[in-house]
Amino acid sequence: MVAAVLAAGLASCVSEPAFKVEGQVADAADKMLYFEQTGLEGIVALDSVRLGTGGTFKFTQPRPEAPDFYRLRMEGKVINFAVDSTETVTVRADYGHFATDYQIEGSDNNAKIKELVLLQADLQNRVNQLGTAGLPAGVAHDSLMHLIDRYKDAVKRNYIFVGPNKSYAYFALFQQLNGYMIFDPLSNKDDIKCFAAVATSLNNLYPHADRSRNLYNMVIKGMKNTRTPQVKEVELPAGVVREASIIDIPLMDVHGVTRHLTDLKGKVVLIDFTVYQHAASAARNLALRELYGKYAGQGLEIYQIALDADEHFWKTASDNLPWICVRDPQGPYSPYLNIYGVTELPAAFVVNRNNELAVRVGEKTALEEEIKKLL
């Protein structure tokens, strides 16, 4: 009986989902290699090994429930990588160029993270050279800002907005230069949009993950910090200001009134990104009208965002629709497409009564059933 219990316990340990980090570091005999987690609270030591003459190593850890970040460290040099559903990450490096000239296999995410590391190292090198160039302070400052802005534009375009749901996009947000974050989530409106795009995508995929919640809190704080006051500021009593769990969309409706998505708290909201001039728009709106007619009385609202270039056409087409119809004049360049991770139209999301994203609508989503659950 005791043997059976022990065997069952051993089987459960063996079957626990795990991932492996293995590989080889050349010319590193007798050197210590450390395996660490890059957590929200700082670096967490997981394991270590003294390398033999062959330089081979293997670490095993429980697989995280949501994507997480790890690193290999040797004498102050590190190799960063992410783990999501990957079973094995393979790393090959040499002692002399451990942090830069390494090979990593296992996922496209880690190849992109390496690219970002090398880009940041090049930026740091250029900034260091600028600091020793002897330029006047004003010229040096302008040159520094030019370097940083050009770097940020490239990273936004090639890593963040093309894959806001990827681990490498999250990694890009937290890169540093001289100990300071390159992207500012608390006071730069353009940078906050980058954080919001990744936060929304992570929240759709991993709503209960600590990183998702932490990123969303940063975005909300940044939006509060950069919000332009509409009237004279008044100090409010504690507890009056509340945080929303969705990113607001403030756009004008057909009557010229700015409608805020976050003002709809208390209702179940269907967010619908669409183009009225699309051939399928009429049929889509007919289906939405039927849905709206059945459930509007129970608390359903539709917040429909048109991306049409022709404002007059949009006003005419939406004039008789019973729900909230707004339009983003930036059309396909709307920042809200990136923020909400929209890659093709039409696209829709369902928000619960607490202003929280509940469902990203896909081809197999039973939309009416999902709405009825939330009502």
Overview of the structural elements:
It is a single chain. This protein has ten helices and 17 strands. The protein is α+β, with helices and mostly antiparallel strands. It folds into three domains: 14-105, Transthyretin/hydroxyisourate hydrolase domain (Immunoglobulin-like), CATH 2.60.40; 121-226, no CATH class; 251-374, 3-Layer(aba) Sandwich (Glutaredoxin). The strands form five sheets. It has a five-stranded mixed β-sheet with strand order 15-14-13-16-17, with helices on one face. Strands 4-1-7-8 form a four-stranded mixed β-sheet. Strands 3-2-5-6 form a four-stranded antiparallel β-sheet. Strand 2 (32-39) and strand 3 form a beta hairpin. The longest helix has 24 residues, at 108-131. The termini are far apart.
Which helices and strands appear, and what pairs or packs with what?
Layout: H1 2-15, E1 18-26, E2 32-39, E3 42-50, E4 56-62, E5 68-74, E6 77-83, E7 88-94, E8 103-105, H2 108-131, H3 137-160, H4 167-173, E9 176-177, E10 180-181, H5 189-205, H6 210-226, E11 250-252, E12 258-260, E13 268-274, H7 281-295, E14 300-306, H8 311-318, E15 324-327, H9 335-339, E16 347-351, E17 357-360, H10 367-374
Parallel strand pairs: 1-7, 13-14, 14-15
Antiparallel strand pairs: 1-4, 2-3, 2-5, 5-6, 7-8, 9-10, 11-12, 13-16, 16-17
Structural class: alpha+beta
The count of strands amounts to 17
Low-confidence runs (pLDDT<50, min 5 residues)? 1-13, 229-244
What shape does the CA trace take? globular
- Tell me the Rg in angstroms: 25 Å
CATH class of the largest domain: Alpha Beta
Integer count of domains? 3
Percent strand: 25-35%
Strand order of the largest sheet: 15-14-13-16-17
Tell me the series of helices and strands, N- to C-terminal. HEEEEEEEEHHHEEHHEEEHEHEHEEH
Level-2 CATH architecture of the largest domain:
3-Layer(aba) Sandwich
The count of helical stretches stands at: 10
Helicity range: 25-40%
Average pLDDT, all residues:
86
The CATH topology of the largest domain corresponds to Glutaredoxin
Distance between the termini: 51 Å
The main pleated sheet reads as: 5 strands, mixed
What's the CATH superfamily of the largest domain, by name?
Glutaredoxin
